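Progress note, sequence design subtask.
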């Protein structure tokens, strides 16, 4: 059974944090689906991932391409993961179900700590997932480094 890790972004942006987490997931041998809510935002994120450091290249693609099943990282706006993802990373308030958390190795929920709606949405997700018996961890970077602040 997997676990949901909540990442409260306050020091670094999504485009800085996501590549770090993706690198760790790929290093663990996982395939990843990055789930957002807006196709335009996913296009933007796709461009940011391509513009990363050359030595930090993250192989990825957007859903709808001819090689979706082969993508180590697949950007999507829905629950589909043709790449058989072991890990789902949600951004911009994308939803995730308790059944998905239980079926995956890891779920990472990244949310902007300066967006009160995003913070509230993450609190609701925490309550729903832990209430359904999912293991969860809350990680904060308020001190400048990631620290686990809560676990359920």
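Output:
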């Amino acid at each position: 059974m997997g676990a949901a890790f909540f990442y409260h972004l306050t020091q670094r942006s999504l485009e800085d944090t996501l590549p770090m987490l993706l690198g760790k997931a790929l290093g663990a041998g996982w395939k990843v689906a990055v789930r957002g809510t807006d196709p335009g935002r996913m296009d933007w994120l796709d461009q940011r991932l391509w513009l990363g450091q050359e030595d930090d290249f993250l192989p990825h693609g957007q859903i709808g391409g001819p090689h979706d099943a082969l993508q180590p990282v697949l950007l999507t706006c829905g629950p589909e993961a043709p790449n058989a993802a072991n890990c789902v990373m949600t951004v911009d308030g994308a939803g995730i179900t308790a059944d998905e958390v239980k079926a995956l190795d890891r779920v990472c929920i990244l949310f902007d700590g300066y967006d009160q709606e995003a913070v509230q949405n993450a609190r609701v997700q925490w309550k729903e997932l832990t209430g359904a018996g999912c293991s969860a961890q809350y990680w904060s970077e308020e001190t400048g480094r990631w620290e686990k602040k809560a676990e359920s």
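Strands lie at 3-9, 32-35, 61-62, 73-76, 87-90, 106-112, 135-140, 147-151. Work on this subtask will continue into the next period as scheduled.
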